[in-house]
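Anyone up for a design puzzle?
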């Protein structure tokens, strides 16, 4: 696995730690900015909205840059946003800071995942994505508790200064550890990039991702009140349970990454089916501590851990360029918004377990979105990175990607091997888009 993939995971970890920090610092931030806790909660919504809407726009604006230059531009913007958060004199400034960091975070995901695809061979691409996305899992496992710990002992501003330092470290690692890549030939035109979205199968893949993450976050968003008010755990036990949940996501992400390349659609189908079972079990046994914890760990194993398979599917169906990856991340964010907001609205009428039942419904709907690929013989090969004929339609994008990824090292001159590979991939991608 290229060192650069691990470096990108450090960047993902910095982004996710900043995203989650507000959730662990609500009381301190409310006191420091002289606002209510619900107003601090709105900062989470602002961040998510900025990711969903602004992230793809920033990605489109950076498409004409080389990938490494685009990453450094995003790091600079993200660092500025976190410094603004650390020094915010009032609530309005903090809102602006969260808008800036949300936009930058989403753009980073799009560019980084595209770079993962360029740096690795098709048959290990899912594994590479899993390594990069371990930054997300570790953000849940370590980033949130560490930001909360710093905030509790040194103040919430110190937490954002710490995230700023982490961002600078991730940027430095990127300078050293990510090789220079030329901009892809044929990239840079927003109209051309949007051509991938003429493929209806891409929209189906995007909707699957929304439902997978929505199903998971409908429960995850309310673990704390459910575990304390329904299951009966004390407040001190919940952080430990969430750390255990985070550890389960790391394990699940690693397993899915190993399987995502060759068994993409089956992995998603089994993940959704098991998540529906675990969510149902959690809802039925929420009052039994052992049962609640067991099913909570199950949700951790098969929820957000589907990311490597989701990303692999979207990249094959559309393309592996930054704009498709960024818009895919927006659909993932949409799942978070739906799961948490609709689930929260249902609590008033149906109780604390209503969001969990919403998750069961979303997981079932997610399975339905996989049916066309699961039972379409001509496209069954789309669930694998290898194993079908190189000329098969389902693998057209993968075959082109193999040519471009075979020699990721930069070459001098317009006729270098890398440029030849990029040209072949651009031609294949264009053919695949037209055929759709």
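Challenge accepted. My sequence:
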């Amino acid at each position: 696995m290229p060192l650069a993939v691990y470096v990108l995971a450090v960047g993902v970890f910095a982004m996710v730690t900043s995203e989650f920090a507000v959730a662990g610092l609500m009381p301190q931030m409310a006191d420091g900015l002289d606002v209510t806790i619900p107003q601090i909660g709105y900062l989470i919504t602002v961040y998510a909205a900025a990711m969903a809407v602004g992230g793809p726009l920033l990605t489109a604006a950076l498409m004409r840059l080389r990938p490494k230059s685009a990453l450094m531009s995003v790091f600079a913007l993200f660092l500025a946003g976190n410094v603004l958060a650390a020094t915010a004199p009032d609530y309005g400034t903090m809102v602006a800071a969260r808008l800036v960091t949300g936009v930058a975070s989403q753009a980073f995901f799009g560019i980084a995942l595209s770079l993962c695809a360029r740096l690795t061979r098709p048959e290990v691409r899912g594994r590479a994505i899993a390594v990069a996305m371990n930054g997300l899992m570790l953000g849940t496992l370590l980033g949130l508790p560490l930001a909360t710990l710093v905030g509790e002992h040194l103040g919430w501003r110190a937490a954002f200064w710490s995230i700023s330092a982490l961002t600078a470290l991730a940027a430095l690692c990127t300078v050293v550890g990510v090789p220079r890549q030329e901009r892809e030939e044929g990239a840079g035109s927003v109209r051309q990039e949007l051509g991938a979205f003429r493929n209806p199968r891409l929209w189906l893949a995007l909707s699957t991702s929304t439902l997978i993450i929505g199903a998971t976050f409908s429960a995850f968003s309310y673990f704390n009140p459910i575990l304390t008010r329904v299951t009966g755990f004390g407040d001190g036990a919940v952080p430990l349970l969430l750390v255990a949940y985070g550890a389960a996501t790391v394990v699940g992400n690693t397993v899915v990454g190993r399987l995502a390349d060759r068994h993409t659609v089956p992995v998603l189908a089994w993940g959704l089916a098991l998540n529906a079972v675990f969510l149902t079990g959690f809802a039925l046994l929420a009052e039994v501590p052992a049962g609640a914890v067991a099913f909570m760990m199950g949700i951790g194993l098969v929820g957000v851990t589907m990311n490597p398979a989701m990303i692999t599917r979207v990249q094959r169906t559309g393309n592996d360029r930054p704009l498709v990856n960024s818009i895919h991340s927006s659909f993932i964010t949409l799942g978070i918004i739906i799961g948490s907001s609709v689930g929260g609205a249902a609590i008033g009428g149906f109780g604390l377990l209503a969001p969990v039942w919403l998750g069961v419904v979303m997981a079932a709907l997610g399975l339905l979105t996989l049916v066309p690929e699961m039972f379409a013989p001509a496209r069954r090969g789309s669930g694998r990175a290898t194993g079908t004929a190189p000329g098969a339609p389902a693998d057209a994008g993968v075959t082109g990607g193999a040519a471009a990824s075979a020699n990721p090292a930069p070459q001098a001159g317009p006729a270098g091997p890398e440029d030849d590979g990029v040209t072949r991939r651009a031609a294949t991608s264009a053919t695949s888009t037209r055929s759709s």
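A detail worth pointing out: Residues 378-436 have pLDDT under 50 and may be disordered.
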